Backbone:
């Protein structure tokens, strides 16, 4: 079996590759210095990349899921920052409204998210509720035609930059995860306080903030789905979102492999290129094999999703393996570069710093194993 993409998918891949190399690569230094890539996102909106899978009816490009994954994969080869911004914006920022929202909510929000006029964020994690997402403590109480929400969130990707936040809070704490509800919250909602901007090991340029809800008043019409459906909305969208993070990890691994292989062919020690020394040659062979395996898992999960088939187990497998591959291949790439790999003069130290979080966000590797294991027991 060979990976074969349709003509349309290949066009998407080529277009994104050209865009990433011509527009994003020159922006890397600014992102590394902490700048959020607003102007890049604006151009991506113009190219239809902020709503790749969103139906045309709501301003999207209405392409298949594999095209979306190809886009994240190609973007992440150049910038894992832009990769994660797009993945969060689409998979867990836009899709919860597209799949669980009513017509008015879709008209109002999805159409703006799809064009890039709005940026999306997803607010599930709390200081004391990370992997155990069902134990979250944010509380939503209905008062007349509003919900009053109190609580706090951490590690919110796109936070502070986003226009729309999908917020999870409990409307009935006695019911545990069955009491969690989802809300669409606009950025200028009274009581929404943007907190600390985390200083991260990698992904500089992507924004990760704390949020506080201080008697935040959300119109009742912004409840997403029904009360108590929030946890399922979160889980269903994370199922698919994880393929996006797997594609991001794959992009980092491919970039690290490419850089290491090119360097190993040029760098001469003991009278021949280091690629021809078995110690490095074997390392490159293992790196390439892992990347190929990750690619098959990522596109297998994407293909299932494109066909509308269940893909939760395959998405978790893809994320588990691709993130592990990204970390190992980035470590190996630094090793191939030797002392130069430890400097900022070469991109491999950035790949190394950016790779690690793919084993953590949208469910740690341990959580992926729980999901895979539960699916095996079904
Ligand atoms: N789809 C739909 N419903 C689901 C589901 C799924 N994939 N998984 C579980 N559910 C439902 C169950 O059917 C069950 O419903 P009932 O109560 O009606 O029977 C309910 O949810 C509870 O299920 P579990 O008992 O299996 O749930 P759990 O409490 O044991 O947790 C878990 C399961 C998989 C560990 C979950 O807590 C989890 O995924 N944790 C990780 C959280 C996570 O990924 N956070 C990422 C934050 S977002 C992020 O990182 C974005 C970013 O910035 C990049």
Residues:
């Amino acid at each position: 079996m060979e990976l074969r993409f349709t003509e349309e998918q290949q066009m998407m891949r080529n277009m994104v590759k050209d865009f990433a190399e011509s527009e994003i690569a020159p922006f890397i230094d600014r992102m590394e210095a902490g700048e959020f890539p607003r102007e890049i996102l604006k151009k991506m909106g113009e190219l239809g990349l902020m709503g790749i899978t969103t139906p045309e009816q709501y301003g999207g490009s209405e392409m298949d899921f594999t095209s979306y994954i190809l886009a994240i994969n190609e973007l992440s080869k150049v910038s894992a920052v832009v990769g994660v911004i797009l993945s969060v914006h689409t998979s867990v920022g836009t899709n919860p409204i597209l799949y669980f929202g009513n017509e008015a909510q879709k008209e109002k929000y999805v159409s703006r998210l799809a064009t890039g006029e709005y940026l999306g964020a997803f607010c599930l994690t709390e200081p004391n509720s990370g992997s155990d997402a069902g134990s979250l403590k944010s509380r939503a109480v209905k008062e007349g035609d509003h919900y009053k929400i109190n609580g706090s969130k951490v590690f919110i990707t796109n936070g502070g930059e986003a226009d729309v936040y999908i917020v999870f809070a409990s409307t009935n704490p006695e019911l545990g995860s069955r009491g969690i509800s989802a809300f669409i919250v606009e950025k200028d909602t009274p009581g929404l306080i943007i907190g600390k901007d985390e200083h991260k090991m990698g992904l500089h340029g992507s924004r990760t903030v704390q949020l506080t809800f201080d008697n935040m008043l959300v119109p009742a019409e912004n409840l997403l789905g029904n009360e108590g459906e929030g946890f399922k909305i979160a889980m269903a969208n994370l199922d698919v979102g994880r393929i996006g993070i797997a594609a991001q990890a794959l992009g980092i691994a491919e970039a690290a492999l490419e850089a290491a292989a090119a360097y190993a062919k040029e760098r001469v020690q003991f009278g021949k290129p280091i690629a021809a020394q078995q110690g490095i040659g074997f390392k490159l062979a293992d790196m390439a094999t892992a990347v190929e395996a990750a690619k098959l898992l990522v596109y297998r999960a994407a293909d299932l999703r494109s066909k509308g088939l269940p893909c939760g187990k395959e998405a978790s497998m893809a994320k588990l393996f691709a993130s592990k591959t990204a970390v190992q291949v980035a470590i190996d790439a630094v090793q191939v570069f030797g002392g130069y790999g430890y400097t900022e003069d070469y991109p491999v130290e950035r790949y190394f710093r950016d790779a690690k979080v793919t084993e953590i966000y949208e469910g740690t590797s341990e959580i992926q194993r729980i999901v895979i294991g539960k699916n095996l027991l079904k």
